[in-house]
Amino acid sequence: MIRFTLTLSLPLLACVGSPAAQAAAQQRATNVVFLLVDDWGWRDAGCFGSDLYETPNIDRLAAGGMKFTSAYAACTVCSPTRAAAMTGMYPARTRVTDWIPGHGREDAPLAPPDWTQRLELHHTTIAEALRGAGYRTAHIGKWHLTPRSTDPAVVEPYYPEHHGFEINVAGNQWGAPGSYHWPYSRKNRKTKQTAPGLGARLANFPTGGEEGDYLTDTLTDHALRVIGDFEDEPFFLYLPYYAVHTPIQGRRDLTQRYEELLKKDSERQHKNAGYAALVTAVDESVGRIMLALEQSGIADDTAIILTGDNGGLSRVTDNAPLRAGKGSAYEGGVRVPCIVRAPGVTQPGTTSDEPVITVDFYPTILAWTGAKGSVVHNAAVDGVDLTPLMRDPDEQLQREAIYWHYPHYHPGGAEPYSAIRMRDWKLIEFQQDGRMELYDLSQDIAESTDIAAKNPERAKKLRDHLHGWRAGIRAQPAVFNE
């Protein structure tokens, strides 16, 4: 079995060259498993406070590593966060600022004129950076970073295999499966035939299968094969689950179990049996992956990242005490669970309240592995290396703030907005009328009381800082509905 001891050489990335990061490089995990859960609400795991969803494996992962209580997705919807994870850049920089193809009204423009409906090929993805350092790379699950089209000539050039992944299972242009049940296609209820155009949802899906197969389990089967095939080489396994996104179709045995639980006790915060089953299927997947790493003898050489791409969908889960959910400017739209277990870096059972965000994983993975990536790309990376924070939960990252920019309308409640979190303070600026809302999250995590009028100087300071960031990153303006 090959094990590397790599030194760090990324002076252009914030914090990467710190003494703590250099010291950590001497005993760093070789492999990286990045698990991304779709539409995963902040409370949607036992270790994050759910009173229904059973997640013993995720809880065990948290007990063995670091849990982040103030972790954020880069956007309130999925595609921008996925682009941010791949590039380490804010959505405003990649120009992937809405889900693909996004929302719009017939009488108003869909999006700003320079909005990008694909992850451009000139970016150096984390897979490309690691592959350049000798890593094997595999993508299994939801990609959703191509143009929206059923024409293979339009979408295939942007598939994962053109962004550094040598293996691509189930990654295509679609953001949800037709069904979680085999054969995974959506069918017309009357004719029982696959709906027109929806066969494309199966592009790159595994062939074969049989009645009773469940998508999350099937994708995990392929992830285990990758671990078995790659175990003697350094590898990067990216498993962005389709779950727990709609359609709400839990595995039948799990759904039945939760229905029985809810019959016995309906006075719970979380009440959706099908959604609970989706969550628990992901938990079982996490457990299977952890077991495979242990049985292969590489658990101590493998870092695991588990997080979400945006907040929970309010009509199927409850994000309280956070306000609202997916598609919103508020905490329920962007705050997500996050757990990292990196042997030799994280300490078991630790918790950090420091704000972290999707773009941070790119430089962190480079720091763990010693991969250099592209000097040009690294100069534009917005994230910071989390290694010092992971080694010391009391550490504060050396940056002023984190940001969001969503110049679109969303049925979840968002209208075009930008936001900034600076320590405990969060300011949201709604772009159409310029109004601001200010919250002290240390006192009001529910964002129930706007205190901008009572704190005009602080609101102005955060707004000016936000405007400076937007100008520096050349954030695209919104096109407003009249």
Shape: globular
Q: Gyration radius, to the nearest Å?
A: 21 Å
Alpha-beta classification: alpha/beta
**CATH topology annotation:** Alkaline Phosphatase, subunit A
Number of structural domains: 1
Low-confidence stretches are 1-28
Main sheet, how many strands, which sense, barrel?
Answer: 8 strands, mixed
Q: Give the amount of beta strand, in percent.
A: 5-15%
The number of strands is: 14
DSSP helical segment count = 14
Rounded to the nearest angstrom, the distance between the terminal CA atoms is: 62 Å
* Major beta sheet, strand line-up: 5-4-6-1-7-8-2-9
Q: Which CATH top level class fits?
A: Alpha Beta
In CATH, the architecture is 3-Layer(aba) Sandwich
Binned, the helix content reads 25-40%
H and E order? HEHEEHHHEHEHEHHEHEEEHHHEEEEH
Residue-averaged pLDDT: 91
Looking at this structure, what is the CATH superfamily? Alkaline Phosphatase, subunit A
Descriptive terms for the model:
8-stranded mixed sheet; globular; 27% helix; 482 residues; single chain; Alkaline Phosphatase, subunit A
Account of the protein in words:
A hairpin with a 2-residue loop joins β12 (417-422) and β13. The radius of gyration is 21 Å and the shape is globular. It has one domain (19-399): Alkaline Phosphatase, subunit A. Mean pLDDT is 91; it is low at 1-28. The protein has 14 helices and 14 strands. The strands form 3 sheets. The chain has an 8-stranded mixed sheet with strand order 5-4-6-1-7-8-2-9. Strands 11-12-13-14 form a 4-stranded antiparallel sheet, with helices on one face. Strands 3-10 form a two-stranded parallel sheet. The chain is of the alpha/beta class.
